[in-house]
Amino acid sequence: xxxxxxxxxxxxxxxxxxxxxxxxxxxxxxxxxxxxxxxxxxxxxxxxxxxxxxxxxxxxxxxxxxxxxxxxxxxxxxxxxxxxxxxxxxxxxxxxxxxxxxxxxxxxxxxxxxxxxxx
Length: 119
Known about the structure:
- The protein is mostly helical and about 120 residues long.
- It has helices at about 20-45, 65-80, 90-110; strands at about 50-55, 60, 80, 90.
- The model has no long low-confidence stretch (mean pLDDT about 90).
């Protein structure tokens, strides 16, 4: 959507068909979405120890745990905040697209890029 090649990144090496640009963009959102979500579902006890299964030393979410987590993920992606660059409210889902477009302009036109830091 933003005109970027998903396999050509600047932080991650393009190996074994990994979408390096996607992984690069993900880094900016890791603390804002993923880390925040994990801490939230644990602290609010949405995910409990019995939501995990142990198979040969590997722990995986059970079907009910996965459902709880995906519901929390959707809530987080729909959370709105004021975008610091554009000044209007948007969801994290929309912010990912906006940041990809800003990064595209930076790489193609030299427009300064500012990482997303909502308050």
